[in-house]
Amino acid sequence: MSEIRFIAEWEPVECVMLALPHKDSDWNYILEESLDQYRRIAETLTASGIRIVLLCRNAKEASTLMSRCDRELIRYVEADYNDTWIRDYGMITVERNGRLRALDFGFNAWGLKFAADKDNLVNLSLKTKGCLLSDTYRNERDFILEGGSVESDGRGTLMTTSECLRSPNRNGGKTKEELNEILHDRLGADHVLWLDHGSLIGDDTDSHIDTLARLAPDDTIVFTGTRDFDDPQFEALLAMRAQLSMFRTAEGNPFNLVELPLPAAICDEEGNRLPATYANYLVANGNIFMPTYGQPTLDSLAMRTIRIAYPNHKVTGIDCRTLIKQHGSLHCATMQVPAGIFNLW
């Protein structure tokens, strides 16, 4: 067993990070709508007692926007960043020999697709500003790794996708064997599950695992599926389901599989399909915050289904129809952080 433990998302957290849209981000064309989306996310989280660290350009303006939230539950940190998908450039927390470490991996906007110069410096900026407790920050930026591309069970098993981690524009197209060694050394992964199938139309991330399949407690995998033969994603998701059924735990046992429905197609103004998925949910302190898409029957089914994997959690839906316009959803927009990292409360 490795001395490093990549903490599972369902373990206790101190707070959730968000990054507020601003006029220089890709949200500018619908800035007020996007600010309202983030306000609703913050209000829902704080109503459940979840603390928030909110990155913003202007703390006073952000505080006004969040006026209906309990002010004791939000800390505003002024920072410069390209965009708001903090899941992918935020720090990844591990435990090493009983001590927490905030790992700052490199971020190059999903394989050099967009600008990321400011995003890539956010975690270092938090350290410089004194927002982190001393001796927690670790610079790992020689390796490109996005938070949405890896799932952990907290016990040495990690799940990811071949298309993303083996992307030539991230780490030079390394082999699985080379990546297994890196994931072991950096994240303590003793058992890596490589998902080779599955993708969503409109996805910019090269099949991030958090859009497709999620590790859950008690050797469970929650995944996206569809029974609609006419859906152009049917074959890929069917192949993914077949591979998931072949995965084994570190002890050699099959996983419990829980299949989420696929939202009905959501398209942009040009008619291009957007990568809506219910798998992009956030777990925080006994809560499941699940993205919804204005599809009452499917939204309700997804929320009922997730209770199979998390029977003791409260499930709350958050309408994410604005987030999906920029090809992301709730998990992409958030990053959970356990107590012992921030120096803000």
Content of β-strand: 15-25%
Average pLDDT works out at 97
Name the CATH homologous superfamily: L-arginine/glycine Amidinotransferase, Chain A
Report how far the terminal alpha carbons are from each other.
34 Å
Q: What's the layout of helices and strands?
A:
Elements: E1 4-6, E2 15-19, H1 31-47, E3 51-56, H2 59-65, E4 74-78, H3 86-89, E5 92-96, E6 99-106, H4 109-112, H5 122-128, E7 137-144, E8 151-152, E9 157-161, H6 162-165, H7 168-171, H8 176-187, E10 191-195, E11 213-216, E12 220-224, H9 234-246, E13 256-260, E14 282-284, E15 287-292, H10 296-309, E16 314-319, E17 335-337
Parallel strand pairs: 2-3, 3-4, 6-7, 9-10, 12-13, 15-16
Antiparallel strand pairs: 1-5, 2-17, 5-6, 8-9, 11-12, 14-15
Describe this structure in words.
It is a single chain. With 345 residues, this protein is α/β, with parallel strands linked by helices. The protein has a single domain, classed as L-arginine/glycine Amidinotransferase, Chain A (5-stranded Propeller), CATH 3.75.10.10. It is 25% helix and 24% strand. The protein contains 10 helices and 17 strands. The chain has a 4-stranded mixed sheet with strand order 1-5-6-7, with helices on both faces. A 4-stranded mixed sheet has the order 4-3-2-17. A 3-stranded mixed sheet has the order 8-9-10, sandwiched between helices. α9 links the parallel β12 and β13. The two termini are 34 Å apart. The relative contact order is 0.17. The mean pLDDT is 97.
